[in-house]
Amino acid sequence: MRKNTTLMVTMSVAFMIGLSACNQSQASEPEDTSSSQVSVDSLSLDNAWVKAADDGMTAVFGELKNNSDKDINLVAAKYDDADQVQLHETLEDNSGGMSMQEKKGGFTIPAGKSLSLKPGGDHIMVMGLAKPVKPGEEISLELVTADQQSFPVTAIAKDYSGAQENYAPGEADDEGDGADHKDMDHKGMDHGDMDDDEMDHGDSGDH
């Protein structure tokens, strides 16, 4: 009887030791995190501003800053009070003028670097405004990266007479009925602070 009791106690102790070792092994396993994920502070839009507009379309500018040690690919932006938001680039067209179109693949900001969004260059285009954007108003947007992370940003509305859109062929058709073009000059583009010497307009005509 004593031998049986001793055997049972020994087995119970061995079971408890094994269970404890198992728990310690599970606790020591690191969490599975994706190396592609970046923190919410990794991407910012510094000195952000948006062109004030009553309706139709507007654009957001600023300094996109990558504060991480990895490249970040910005593929989309969201604004609740608009039909559509696109990432746009400005390119020289066949006539020697400049036209704007959606940036295929989005903007890539190298690690530790910045990308300027400015009139006459890359920018965030907001189309089909549901309500006016008044001077001094602050609007909220979300920037979306290729790995589907969202970065909230804000921009202050300012009066600005430039940033007129001249689209590449077919680009304006993609905006749908929500985009009102009546206040946009499609005969040419105001290049803002860019000097005429910096642009070769060729035979594109007067702006």
Could you please describe the fold and organization of this structure?
The protein contains 1 helix and 10 strands; from the N terminus they run αββββββββββ. The chain is mainly beta and 207 residues long. The protein has a domain of 127 residues: PCu(A)C copper chaperone (Immunoglobulin-like), CATH 2.60.40. Strands 1, 2, 3, 4, 5, 6, 7, 8, 9 and 10 form a 10-stranded mixed β-sheet that branches. A hairpin with a 4-residue loop joins strand 9 and strand 10. The radius of gyration is 28 Å and the shape is globular.
Q: Which characteristics define this entry?
A:
207 residues; mainly beta; Immunoglobulin-like; ten-stranded mixed β-sheet; 13% helix; 35% strand; globular; disordered C terminus
User: Class of the domain at 43-169 in CATH?
Assistant: Mainly Beta
The counted number of beta strands is 10
Radius of gyration in whole Å, from Cα?
28 Å
Oligomer: single chain
Shape estimate: globular
* Structural class computed from helices and strand pairing: mainly beta
Average pLDDT score: 75
| Amount of helix | 10-25%
Low-confidence stretches: 25-36, 167-207
List the SSEs and their pairings.
Blueprint: H1 2-28, E1 43-51, E2 57-66, E3 72-78, E4 82-92, E5 98-102, E6 107-109, E7 114-117, E8 123-129, E9 138-145, E10 150-158
Parallel strand pairs: 1-10
Antiparallel strand pairs: 1-2, 2-7, 2-8, 3-6, 3-9, 4-5, 4-8, 9-10
